[in-house]
Prior knowledge:
Blueprint: H1 7-15, E1 23-24, H2 29-39, E2 51-56, H3 59-65, H4 71-79, E3 82-89, H5 96-99, H6 106-109, H7 114-138, E4 142-146, H8 151-158, E5 164-175, H9 189-192
Antiparallel strand pairs: 1-5, 2-3, 3-5, 4-5
Helix pairs in contact: 2-7
Amino acid sequence: MHAPLNDAALDQLFRTARTYNAFTGDVSDETLRRLYDLMKFGPTEANTTPARIVFVKSKEAKAKLGPALSEGNYKKTMEAPVTAIVGYDMRFYEKLPVLFPHTDAKAWFEHRDAAELAWVAMRNSALQTAYLILAARALGLDCGPMTGFDNAKVDEAFFAGTSIRSNILVNLGYGDPASLFPRSPRLPFDEACRIE
């Protein structure tokens, strides 16, 4: 039996964790490796794990990303220590002989059309983005996830000539509390859930 996490851990992951708009500090490559090594264990459909990530840190990479950002996301992204571009591989099924070796799961996907593959890949890479956020918070980082960008421009700048498409951006660093907006409400259980 697993023991529930204590309140401090639950606060860090959920209750007091926030979406930041400004960050300080440096995020080491080793921390990014640790982050991935945590997030990779989150479940996905048939262990497809379609997420492919570019951690944008250098000035040159930021300059490539900048033109794809919406006006409201530009400054905070350019100033963030790291921006994770979470993409999804449309040919994720090619890895299934390794990732799901106990049966021929590749055959479940390789014949599907592009729209079906995109749905599977995008849905599961979004799930993996949530794991990335939780892994980052578990390592003491703060996050600023966003979808306000031009996917076609990001794909051209970072994934040209590949089967990878961008999905979500996540700024990473140590959040500046001055950048926070008041916390938005959440729906109570009885409005969002039911037990049958």
